[in-house]
Amino acid sequence: MEPIIQVKSLTKSYGSNTVLADIELEIDRREVVVVIGPSGSGKSTFLRCLNLLEKPNGGEVLIEGRSLTGKGTNIEEIRAEVGMVFQNFNLFPHMKVIDNIALAPVKVRKWSTEQARKKAMELLYKVGLTEKAEAYPGSLSGGQAQRVAIARALAMEPKIMLFDEPTSALDPEMIGEVLAVMKDLAREGMTMVVVTHEMGFAREVGDRIVFMEQGRVLEIAKPDELFDHPKHERTKEFLSKIL
Amino acid sequence: MSDFNFDIIWGYFPLFMRGTLYTIGISVSGIVLGSLLGLIIAMCNMSRLWFLKYPVQGYIHFFRGTPLMLQILIVHFGVVYSILGTTNAIVAAITALALNAAAYTAEIFRAGIQSIDKGQSEAAYSLGMKKWQVMRYVVLPQATKRMIPAFGNEFIVLIKDSSLVAVIAAPELMYWAKAANAQYTRVWEPYLTAACIYLALTYSLHKLLQYIERKM
């Protein structure tokens, strides 16, 4: 079966500063790929290229065989199938939690308001926050906000979920509740690409780990292999510093 | 001032009231039309397309860089006359004030929109929203709140500036104050009355905006 995400010699640079150099990667349906590496290695930029929040300078990304930068591509249509969770949640502060979740299904998928609100309540139940439906994002803790953000992305019923350091802005005691939701998702078979510094999560949930440094993919391997027998010197060095 | 004559005010009272209504009408029309145009101009100004961006930047420079009095005269005797074939002071007054206000509100819109964190629009884009939807549902509702004080200032300035259209004989408050001044060759009665009415208008607006800002 065709991979759901295909990344072909993807290159991104700002002026003379190369952020991504010739990235090649294929991701299958139901696969969880965790991207790790030192800060500034291009992990987040890479992830943001997968839904065209960053425009690559060269190469291309295909989602279900459709090139993001192809001529006839309707990027909004593809983005609707690719959910994204951000480090800083980016909830809409002027809307109640339930409206945050229901907005895109109504405006993009053209669902009825009742249908979207029903879906929103189901998702709030899933992330354990039904009692916060009528609250505004400003009153939520970081962990709650991030769980709402995950519910908001899921409301579009995406085929792929991208996570951009979803726990990096959280207090330590709130990281667990967000990771738990992500583990559930992985178990249900969601295709996920996760940029994170949570090595425990990477090892437990990841099907494959991608190690990036200075805009290049240095190593791709199954978690046990990468964590226990890293091939590349730089991978060893990185792991020895953080584990 | 010791011989302050209230009879002059009473005699002109109906005309002052009519003039006040015209002042309100011209100002409200000016700010509403000017804001709509200003939003369009701001969008063009933030566009990456040079043929949208550069003309509106020229527009903003022109209307902020030349006297409003001059713009009123050009619109009245030039633009409106060549389009309608006749002069119409009310149409010219509203048009000139709206065109002028658009240049200022465009900058208010731009500053307000650019003050919203980029993560907000990125989140909206990532959900599959189109550009106009991101603006309409996510960015503008948040930006509007931040723009209220600047808009209030602009609206107050516009009410005061609307007195300039007296030069093209638009029958608003200032026009009747000048008429009374000319008829009776009196300074204090007509001009102090006009000043009080302008002050009442701008002060009520100031209070209204304060209320709205607190409500939001």
Report on this structure.
The complex is a heterodimer of chains A (243) and B (216). With 243 residues, chain A is of the alpha/beta class. Chain A is built from 9 helices and 10 strands. In chain A, the strands form 2 sheets. In chain A, strands 6-7-8-3-9-10 form a 6-stranded mixed beta sheet, sandwiched between helices. In chain A, strands 2-1-4-5 form a 4-stranded antiparallel beta sheet, covered by helices on one side. The longest helix of chain A is centred in the last third of the chain and has 16 residues, at 172-187. Chain A is globular. Chain A starts with a strand and ends with a helix. Chain B is an all-alpha fold and 216 residues long. The radius of gyration of chain B is 21 Å and the shape is elongated. In chain B, helix 3 crosses helix 4. Chain B starts with 5 loop residues before the first helix and ends with a helix. The mean pLDDT of chain B is 94. Helices cover 83% and strands 0% of the residues of chain B. Chain A binds chain B through residues 51, 53, 76-77, 79-84, 86, 88, 90-94, 103-104, 107-108, 149, 152-153, 156, and chain B through 117, 119-120, 122-130, 133, 137-138, 141-142, 145.
Which descriptors would you attach to this protein?
heterodimer, A: 243 residues, alpha/beta, six-stranded mixed sheet, four-stranded antiparallel sheet, 37% helix, globular, B: 216 residues, mainly alpha, 8 helices, elongated
